[in-house]
Amino acid sequence: MKGESRKMRPSNPRLGEMTIKVPAPFAGISDLGFTAQYRAQQFNEPQRDVPFLIEGPELPMRRLAELLQLLSGAESSAYAWSDPVMLSDEVVVLAFRDRIASGQTLSDGGGAADYVMNLVRPVVFTFLRDCAMIAHLRLSEVIEMRVNAERKSVAEISLPLEEIVQPNGERLLWGFSG
After folding, report:
1. What residue segments make up the domains of the chain, in order of their start?
2. From CA 59, how far away is CA 57, in angstroms rounded?
3. Nearest to residue 89, comparing CAs of 54, 124, 140?
4. Which of 123, 112, 93, 117 is nearest to 18 (CA)?
5. Count of CB atoms within 10 A of residue 104's CB?
6. Contact predicate 18/38, CB 8 Å
7. Do 174 and 60 contact (CB within 8 A), yes or no?
8. Over the Cα atoms of the chain, what is R_g?
């Protein structure tokens, strides 16, 4: 042991800040994308809300804001979506809310699987799935993501849509009104 240096794991591990950028997730619109922002927190804390900042041209953004209302009205015991808020003609925000932490603890035995899924599955997959399945939005056939953690690039990923959600929605954000 003499002269040996041991590194111990921190007793209270921390999840660092992370952003996931998804450019052009909706079919036919290359200049509309979003960023999900995970805030730093302790590992054993309930997951904090994950805000989504969505940016794009005015007309598709207005249509998207209307359709995202369907997500906030959807029922799930594991998570919820906040109401979308238009910050400007070209920016909408909404948040993913982990419902597992509300009113129960993991030691109660309920919700452990949902807690782990909410923690390890990127919320962008949940968002895209709900956009296709609940709002019936048509998504791009390939979804690209850029992941940054602690302000450093971690990964650039391209996935075929069918690996994230099936079936795809049918509503387009452009080409018609109403």
Report:
1. 14-163
2. 6
3. 54
4. 123
5. 13
6. yes
7. yes
8. 18
